[in-house]
Amino acid sequence: MELQEAVKGYEEQLLKSLQESIRIRSVQGEASEQYPYGKGVQDCLDHALKTAEALGFATIDLDHQMGWCEYGEGEEMVAVLGHLDVVPEGDGWSFDPFGGEIRDGKVFGRGAMDDKGPTIAALYALAALRDSGFPIRRRIRLLFGTNEETGSNDMKYYRSHGGEIPVMGFTPDGEYPVINGEKGLINVNFSRNYTQDGDVRILEIHGGSAPNVVPAEAKAKVVCPAELAASLLKKSDDRIQYEKTEEGVQITAAGLSAHGATPELGVNAIGLLLEALCELPLSEEADRWVRFLEEKIGLETKGTSLGIEMADEISGNLSLNLGTLEGDDHSAALEINYRYPVTKSYEDCAQILEQAFADAGFTKTGERHKKSLYVPEESELVQTLLGVYADHTGLEPIPKSIGGGTYAKAIPNIVAFGPIFPGDEVREHKPDEFIEVEKLMKNAQIIAEAMYRLAK
């Protein structure tokens, strides 16, 4: 049986299973021993495993943390890594976010694209490959993840509890043709206490909502004499607005939001606010930390003044975003999101940045780090996947490196491969998330072929 025809034969079952999966609200919930990520997530894992069993595959539920099914024999294993957890539905839907409705050739619902659609497609692709009878020398394991959206603790558990590492594989949770490079990602928190005296003092400061978003607005309330307040009110413009308050002024900076992976596309409102604060006669300690942040970061996006600017030909420049800043009259806390090129390392930048903040009186209070991922273009894995993509689309297969991160970082020897085709609208995490039936089936065919070529 031809492999692609075998995939097409499962279309009705695939769509039914995807609808059933979407109808399970698998948003992370209250944890318990039986439901480490909440009952909804476990229900969705149970559904996937039962579907796999009905298709004739042996399955494993690893302590309710994640699960898998497997086909084939052999000492080596290739993996397809998908996830069943989803982000909350949010507002603005025209359809039931957990209805799995099919209309106008599209399957609607949270997870349809990210990542239930591709994961269920991979399950039926595996069944089609088995039905085809094509010989393979490596086992194929389909991993059902349950915590991709909130930390990938599922895969940390898998790895720490003896989970087999594939010789190669992919996650259909990114883009085509292949994402073979992902920058290293660091979120780091700093705080500082300080004292103030004099007539001009910071009362409150606030900017940003998340480290990976360029803040569009930042505000500060400042105590100052009436004469200074009056002069500041005359300086308001499109970017900086001054409003009179009982104590002095409120300063509001208006920037332009952008994703933390591409901060150069935005204008950091915290940086604008720091510029405005530097023009005020603040007391010594307040002026020191404000001026440090303005001079060392401000509106910069490459870490230049902090001494960590670097780049490579594969993934471009280090990017840096001052994502949040919170403070009152005696303390300030901030979080920075920065991403280093794929051929560089944590050691190339983190210690330099931390020393600069330590010298300015800040204390590091937290940090999260995901190492960079890079699989050379000439590798067997990347070349195989590029060949599958080219054969099925007729498009030029050029791999890409990104500033963001995918599920591929959770397991060694994995890259992101699909499900989004070039030119497609990015729909995950948005209202009315959907996947076209035609492209769902196209993904299933591509996944089936990729499984076969990697395992044969």
From TrEMBL:
GO MF annotation: an example: dipeptidase activity
PROSITE patterns: ARGE_DAPE_CPG2_1 (PS00758)
SUPFAM superfamilies the UniProt entry points to: Bacterial exopeptidase dimerisation domain (SSF55031), Zn-dependent exopeptidases (SSF53187)
Enzyme class: hydrolase
EC number: 3.4.13.-
Co-factor requirement: Zn(2+)
One GO biological process term: L-arginine biosynthetic process
UniProt key word Protease: yes
Domain Peptidase M20 dimerisation: 137-227, 248-356
Database matches in InterPro entries: ArgE/DapE_CS, Bact_exopeptidase_dim_dom, M20A_pepV-rel, Peptidase_M20, Peptidase_M20_dimer, Peptidase_M20A
Keyword line: Dipeptidase, Hydrolase, Metal-binding, Metalloprotease, Protease, Zinc
Family per record: Belongs to the peptidase M20A family.
Protein name per Swiss-Prot or TrEMBL: Dipeptidase PepV
Source species of the chain: Hominiventricola filiformis
